[in-house]
Amino acid sequence: MPSDTKKFFENLSGAGKCIAVLTSGGDAQGMNAAVRAVVRMGIYVGAKVYFIHEGYQGMVDGGDNIKEATWESVSSMLQVGGTVIGSARCKEFRTHEGRLKAAHNLVQRSITNLCVIGGDGSLTGANLFREEWSGLLTELLQQGLIDEEAVQKNSTLHIVGMVGSIDNDFCGTDMTIGTDSALHRIIEVVDAITTTAQSHQRTFVLEVMGRHCGYLAMVSALACGADWVFIPEMPPEDGWEDSMCQKLSESRSRGSRLNIIIVAEGAIDRQGQPITSDFVKDLVVRRLGFDTRVTILGHVQRGGTPSAFDRILASRMGVEAVLALLEASANTPACVVSLVGNQAVRLPLMECVQMVSVCAAETEDIVFLSITAALRHPQSSFNVAVLNVGAPAAGMNAAVRSAVRVGIAEGHKMFAVSDGFEGFYKGQIKEIKWGDVGGWTGQGGSLLGTKRTLPGKHLEKIAEQIRIHNINALLVIGGFEALESLLQLYEARADYEDFCIPICMLPATISNNVPGTDLSIGADTSLNAIVETCDRIKQSASGTKRRVFIIETMGGYCGYLATVGGLAAGADTVYIYEEAFDIRDLQANVEHLTQKMKTSIQRGLVLRNENCNENFTTDFIYQLYSEEGRGVFDCRKNILGHMQQGGAPSPFDRNFGTKVAAKAMQWITRTLKDSYKGGKVTAHLKRSLSRAAVVRHLEFPRGAGFLCFKASNTSNITSEAVRDEQLIDFKSKLQLEEYNQQTAM
């Protein structure tokens, strides 16, 4: 932990404060991670923390429903779905008498800080409770249930909310707790259905949750490459039946053996009439005669283990919620902890509740699902090549598919380059059509092929291939090698005019080590692989007891996977390159685990980044722990290796890859039009690029773009900042020269 952050937490004090946490309304995966974070952060700062079991019903009933929490009581909660403290819809709390009982139960325990995890109804009820608090205390005093001292001591009730809802239907936050896990359940079903649908040439209509919000339907449609989707926010135009059947028929005529249609449970037409899955099925059978089946996912979407994203999101929100309660004053309004970009922020609760949740920013993406979009753009004379560079990352294929189809929709001729820049200089370039990328979204690895070869030694041959195929723009998808490749091409522009074309890079690496972006394509999938493995390892230790596991993760010189994976898996210690450690730290960690074995939590989990220290290797740490823990605990080690690069991409990576690739193609189209003069494309001018939501373009000089994911809306990072400050600092910090030598082997 950085020293300034450590000092900040050390200066926090919750002494004398009592915090209660409850879950209310529908359950959502990740709620337990939020509860765990509130409890442990509260205890860390010296506050008393209480569970309120069964939501508001438990608050009204009191008694054993309100219990003090301990550090150990939230152990092993991270990987459990639902909510272990229970959730219930309480009619009694909606009455004044019910809230009076709840207030009495809280005052008896001196609880004046309440953390509520639920939907907008639960948070609205909490805010009403806060507004009535003074009046409720006065009534309790008049009835003789509490004394004047209790009124003075508990005069103010502080409320902080966290949104737990799989529908992602709360305004003010980009993602709610549980949404990503629900998408995992949907995509797991779609991937399984796809195989049987292909076997029998069937059409499947899938109904997903979302009575008033179509987020799950829309994003799952993007993530699985569905043919059609219905959402409440965007009723289809009149005559949609003809358009949909035509689209399905054209898809089959191009050789597709299946069709997927996603229907949100609240989908309606322009007249407000429901569009049900059965209606869609009957329509397809009647019009086209396709063998069509309906699958209603139902509460499967609420169940199962929370994803890595939801665990981290909920944990960060839980910590922020406790900080908000500690900093609250008598006049502080109730707030809700939200995710904006990649940051946990506090927003006024009732302002968010009162806003109408509209997914207009996302509905634009629906155009990617329809082939008819290609008919809306005139044919251009531009050729755009796309290639993958560096190590494979799950989600690369989704990005390629999106780039190809959006490029064709923009009127370009798209070319695929096999095996990165090695294939480029060898001439492994061919035109790629709309149908060639069908089914790519759910495929792991890199179907185009990817190599770590940099272009520096083959510039003349690459320039020749650009001339041969008349390439007007490049889209490079990859990690740090891709960034280095762009810099080499830029530096070669003085000698090769062929490189003076728009070039855009999408960060795609499981290591998430590309400077200038918060997230990279592939990192989420890798995190889920790490977390799933850690869950299984921890489960195995629950039987043997007194066992510590040393797990090595990938990431090169970047500790992102180890750090975030450790947070999501509940690790005791994480060793990374960015934070130096010595033998004294190792000894302190062994002593911590020794003390831990004396509690009811008799297991340990240690994550080590593969390059965290050249001397303190995984074997060294394993042997040290084994020797120092002799007689107290035994050790096992596990090197996860390339399993972190494999597997089908997660819903997040599919959606992220699809959207950023589309943004990249839009940037390329604009830059091509601006750079086309005198019958040729010459990207020499330095341009400022506009932001779209949290996805921003960072431009290198002379028409080279870098598309990245940024958390804040601060000013655009200049090309000099990326090249001179971030990149050079990254080189020195991570010893890039040694890194390049190792990766070139």
TrEMBL record:
Its EC number is 2.7.1.11. Signal peptide: none annotated. Residues 19-324, 383-668 form the Phosphofructokinase domain. One of its GO terms (molecular function) is ATP binding. Keywords: Allosteric enzyme, ATP-binding, Cytoplasm, Glycolysis, Kinase, Magnesium, Metal-binding, Nucleotide-binding, Transferase. Gene3D superfamilies: 3.40.50.450, Phosphofructokinase domain. It catalyses: beta-D-fructose 6-phosphate + ATP = beta-D-fructose 1,6-bisphosphate + ADP + H(+). The keyword Metal-binding applies. SUPFAM superfamilies: Phosphofructokinase (SSF53784). One of its GO terms (cellular component) is membrane. Its cofactor is Mg(2+). It is an enzyme of class 2 (transferase). GO terms for biological process: canonical glycolysis; fructose 1,6-bisphosphate metabolic process; fructose 6-phosphate metabolic process. The keyword Transport does not apply. Pfam families: PFK. Pathway: Carbohydrate degradation; glycolysis; D-glyceraldehyde 3-phosphate and glycerone phosphate from D-glucose: step 3/4. Belongs to the phosphofructokinase type A (PFKA) family. ATP-dependent PFK group I subfamily. Eukaryotic two domain clade "E" sub-subfamily. This is 6-phosphofructokinase. It comes from Stegastes partitus (bicolor damselfish). The gene is PFKP.
